[in-house]
Amino acid sequence: MAQTPESGAVTQMLKAAEKGDSRAAADLLPLVYQELRKLARSRMAKTPPGNTLQPTALVHEAYLRLIGSDQPSWNNRGHFFGAAAQAMRQILIEQARRKGSKKHGGDRKRLDLADVEPVMEEPKEDLIALDEAIKRLEQANPRQGKIVLLRYFAGLTNEETAASLGVSLRTVEGDWRFIRAFLFDQLSKPSS
After folding, report:
1. How far apart are CA 13 and CA 5, in angstroms?
2. What is the pLDDT of residues 60-99, one digit of tens each?
3. FRET label pair with 147: which of 25, 117, 140, 177, CA 20 to 30 Å apart?
4. Do both 89 and 7 map to the same domain?
5. CB–CB of 145/176 below 8 Å?
6. Tens digit of each residue's pLDDT (9 = 90 or more) over 123-151
7. Cβ burial, residue 154 (10 Å; 0-12/13-18/19+)
């Protein structure tokens, strides 16, 4: 991530918000809002059809969780966006679990009346299975868990991920190849 005047302002506001400056926390949202919306749209594009959560709601919920935490502590802009990606991931997982519960009709197939006659069902990304696989990866290798968070959930490039973690680009590239193979293997296994 290249340091721009705007990213410098974000870092200063993050530090002020961490010290308890409520004005800095309020001024921070307009500076990061568009990037958070872009991140949310990216995440929402990968969710299965029938999702009712909108990117704007996801951004607002994630921001409230970040700013409302007891001890917000972000070293820099990249760290903040990593925390935002983690918050969005948690929100999406919570929603998937809630929708999957019997109380909310999770044992039934959902149909959109506009799409009553589908010819072929698109493959669905199972967020809960993905979350479980990522947890297993994080336990085995915390750095690779962070790479998944930054690459997949925050939408950072390999270069931005390497800069954020303070490792070489080759390390991130090698880990990313392994991570994709690991997650493919984990998600290809039949569920029991």
Report:
1. 12
2. 888 788 777 665 566 677 777 788 888 888 888 888 788 7
3. 25
4. yes
5. no
6. 455 778 888 899 999 999 999 999 998 88
7. buried
Burial (CB count within 10 angstroms: exposed 0-12, middle 13-18, buried 19+), residue 147:
buried
Q: Tokens for 125, please give them.
A: 């990304």
Give 168's contacts (C-beta < 8 A, 6+ positions apart). 162
Which residue range(s) make up the domain with 145? 126-192
Where does the chain have alpha helices with state H? 5-18, 22-45, 55-68, 77-100, 127-140, 142-148, 158-165, 169-188
Round to whole Å and give the CA distance between 186 and 114.
34
Tokens of residue 74, six digits = 């972000």
CATH code of the domain in which 90 resides: 1.10.1740
* C-alpha–C-alpha distance, residues 140 and 138, integer Å: 5
Residue 39 located in a structural domain? yes
Q: Which residues contact 37 (CB under 8 A, 6 or more apart)?
A: 55, 56, 59
Give the separation between CA 13 and CA 24, rounded to whole angstroms.
Answer: 5
As to burial, measured by CB atoms within 10 angstroms (0-12 exposed, 13-18 middle, 19+ buried), residue 67 is middle
Residue 56, token pair as written in the block: 């704007």
Can you read off the two tokens belonging to residue 175? 């880990």
End-to-end CA distance of the chain: 42
Is 51 inside any structural domain? Answer: yes
